[in-house]
Amino acid sequence: MQWTEVSVITSSEAVEAVANILMEHGASGVSIEDAADFAKLKPGKYGPHGEIVDPADLSHISKGAIISAYYPDNQSITDQVVQITTQVQGLVHFGLHPAPAEVTVNDVADENWKTAWEKYYHPVHVTRYLTVVPSWEDYSPKSVEEKIIRLDPGMAFGTGTHPTTQLSLQALEIIMKGHESVLDVGTGSGVLSIAAKLLGATEVKALDVDNVAVASAKKNMGLNPVAKDITVVANNLLTGIHEQVDIVVANILAEIIIPLVAQAFKNLKPGGYFLTSGIIKDKFETIKVSLQENGFVITEILNMKDWYAIIAQKPKGED
Question: For the chain, give me the number of helices (H) and strands (E)?
Fold first, then answer.
């Protein structure tokens, strides 16, 4: 089968937002070549025959990122390229800087898109205890405390390498003690839901408005035995969800967090936590004020590069 590859040259900070745009246009998979990720690689099996290679000897981009999405040849994606370009450039209105925001289109053979991202995706230690590992890697924990999240990044973003995902995982690790109930809003790859189960959650429900993300999350749950009982459903934020839980976590764009704040407050038990990430520096104060105006008490702020995560608590006296 022939595939159409749509590639976007952008900045590292806009990676997840651009990937989301491409998935919304029906991508059957995405690959991310991010200079920021490449800088973290250590010598490993990067050669064409599995031989050990020093990443410094590999050809790679020196700055920014290239996000490539793949569409089957029966899908008229070329007609949507103008709209994709407009949406990518429009990310400036969300506090992101997607420049140069260049979009290109190429034909790709079936065997190439499936492995396009493999040489750039390797185990990443994202927190003290959590390590994200691609599904094809033979990897064993280095200590009894290390917990492994296995993911197949070929169908959705949120693989643990982007600051917003790392901040979310760090926030979960900070507040979780075990036996919590969790709602993961905008689950994407499902990485936060899987992490929650590894950290001791007894009940997790993962939600995403995009059916492609739901399918991807379900696939990734299947790679992690601990996640077999996670419920994954298509849903618009917390609309129609009336259960109260211990934790609501959302790694999404700031503009989408705003309408979620009041919903999260209603869906949390007294003393419950709302973990928000995906907050670019320019939007931090807006989200902070929204949380406080809706009754939350901010207990901790996490920061990485230009990205922020906020741990907010519903007062124990609220019901």
Answer: 9, 16
CB atoms within 10 A of CB 81: 15
Within the chain, which residues score under 50 in pLDDT?
45-55, 59, 155-156
Cα(276)–Cα(284) distance, integer angstroms? 11
Q: Report the distance separating Cα 258 and Cα 263, nearest Å.
A: 10
In 170-194, which positions are buried (b, 16+ CB within 10 angstroms) versus exposed (e)? bbbbebbeeebbbbbbbbbbbbbbb
Cα–Cα dist 108/87, whole Å: 24
Residue ranges at the known binding site: 165, 186, 208, 251
List, in order of start, the domains of the chain with CATH numbers: 2-110 (3.30.70), 124-313 (3.40.50.150)
Q: What are phi and psi for residue 161, nearest 5 degrees?
A: -90, -25
User: Which residues define the annotated binding site for S-adenosyl-L-methionine?
Assistant: 165, 186, 208, 251
Strand order of the sheet with strand 147-151?
124-125, 130-134, 147-151
Handedness of CA 8, 10, 12, 15 (dihedral sign): negative
